Amino acid sequence: MSDHVEVERTYEVDDSFEVPALSGLGRVDGPAERLLDATYYDTVDLRLLAAKVTFRRRTGGNDAGWHVKLPAGVDARREVHRDLSDDIPPDLVALVREVSGGAALAPAARISTRRLVLTLVGDQPLAELCDDHVTAQVLLPGHESSEGWRELEVELLDGNRATFDTVERVLFTAGARPATIGSKLGRLLGPYLPPT
């Protein structure tokens, strides 16, 4: 089990986008392919999503398991991780109880991602550039549907926030755009949030 803060930004790209060379920024390792499959849980009226809280069970990658992500400032979220299991960890349910109001959590979406990862390295790994090819399903009763898209994520590993600016300049020149919605789940389920 673990608890850490992740700092990342998301970018919109077209299917024809070509990831630019980052070699001018330092050593680049990869790409490494990761196949991720996540089921996202929420209340029937999406209380967690409305509060920018994510609750998921994910397989694949180097952090398979249960994750709860909580807002933690600009571009940052606190991630609480538990080992992979079939049952929802009760302590994670308790962690979001104030937001959920104690309402039952059920699968709301499934998101599968083919991720190609480039790692920017200085004296140590500074950031990951993830090229994500996404297949997503809405599981809300009465709203079942599916869609797909491509996006980029840059996650800081041991770099400072100036790393974002450096990588962004290269991405924007190649045609990437800041994401209007910062998470895959928000993009998929945002249209189903009750009006505020």
Report the oligomer.
single chain
Largest sheet: 8 strands, antiparallel, barrel
State the strand order across the main sheet.
1-5-4-3-2-6-7-8
In round numbers, the mean pLDDT is 94
Protein structure class: alpha+beta
What number of domains? Answer: 1
Rg from Cα: 17 Å
Shape, per Cα inertia axes: globular
Q: What is the name of the CATH superfamily?
A: Hypothetical Protein Pfu-838710-001
Protein name: CYTH domain-containing protein
Domain CYTH: 4-195
InterPro entries: CYTH-like_dom_sf, CYTH_domain
Task: Give the topology, please.
Layout lengths: L1 E11 L14 E16 L4 H4 L3 E6 L5 E7 L4 E7 L7 H6 L1 H4 L5 E16 L3 E14 L6 E12 L5 H13 L2 E2 L5 H6 L7
Antiparallel strand pairs: 1-5, 1-8, 1-9, 2-3, 2-6, 3-4, 4-5, 6-7, 7-8
Protein name: CYTH domain-containing protein
Pfam family, one: CYTH
InterPro entries: CYTH-like_dom_sf, CYTH_domain
